[in-house]
Design brief:
The structure holds two protein chains of two kinds. By secondary structure, chain A is mostly helical. Chain A contains 14 helices and no strands. Chain A has two domains: 177 residues, Tetracycline Repressor, domain 2 (Orthogonal Bundle), CATH 1.10.357; 127 residues, no CATH class. In chain B, 67% of the residues lie in helices and 0% in strands. The chains are: A mainly alpha, B mainly alpha. Chain A: Converts heme B (protoheme IX) to heme O by substitution of the vinyl group on carbon 2 of heme B porphyrin ring with a hydroxyethyl farnesyl side group.
Amino acid sequence: MAMTNEHEALTDPASVAIHDGDARDFFALLKPRVMSLVVFTALVGLLMAPGQIHPVIGFLAILAIAVGGGASGALNMWYDADIDQMMGRTAKRPIPAGRISAETTLAFGLFLSVFSVATLGLMVNWLSAGLLAFTIFFYAVVYTMWLKRLTPQNIVIGGAAGAFPPIIGWACVTNSISLESIALFAIIFLWTPAHFWALALFKSEDYGRAGVPMLPNVAGERTTKNQIVLYAVLTALSGIVPSIMGFAGLVYGAIAAVLGAGFIWYSIQVWRMPDGDKKMIPAKKLFGYSLLYLFAIFTALLVDALVTKYFGLVA
Amino acid sequence: MEKVELTEQQKKARRSRSVALGIALAVLAVLFYVVTIIKIGPGIFDRAM
């Protein structure tokens, strides 16, 4: 391949893709909003775990987990580019918008997957690296390639991928999986269905157009609303488990109970929403509250852990 | 030989990607150096010659 100094001369121009995408587009492939949740929940797992980790190693661990989570997002965008272009929420992503090619996204996602897992293994421990590799596999293959287009239970099972980060953060410190880290996993795992089905209710036309079998499209609004209330109750209960198990204090338990009651209240508002409602305001409110809920629960866990661990106080 | 002339937007995007890649590599080099020192510590000098 002949090149000028500016790498602009090519023997076969048609054979080489020239990107319009800049660094921000590549960053968008990592799903930064999902990544922020991954970073935060992994950090809470890491700080709550019994034991010590050097701050720089801890920072590197969180960075590797973030990049691994981002890599799975890129692989998801590579595989889902065909349906992303049909949905308003995703049509502006870099591949459907034509700014980055699907092949480049695949290479980017695979490279970052291998790099993040290898970094975590070599610099922290191989249990956390193995868990990160499994999380990427679960999200990219089990959820994206298999479940998403197959079953309305897609996000129930696929939600496990988003729930793994606190277990990985915990394993970075202890080199083990414990009941406590599984309790943190359970909060996110049980939270995911109500969160996504609230979105699926007011975006059901989008999902229907793309042929994704979300619960409202397959089983109808009534069934979805019943399931939302069920999972909201399970989420609220799982939120107080850390306090019952004794690895979070009573103040945390009280905060989790109030937040959980709010989650159930918003889910009941959705349940009471008439079928066929066009504005779906209760569903939008539940979606917004669910994000606040998860952030608040993990912030409360973080504060509880820091107060207990670093100041020796029992809340 | 046929040449590909990049548009101004493509040149700008390429510059943006290059800068981001450069920063990422520099940060990683520093980070890996620091982690190596932390993990090996003074033992980094304790090796067979």
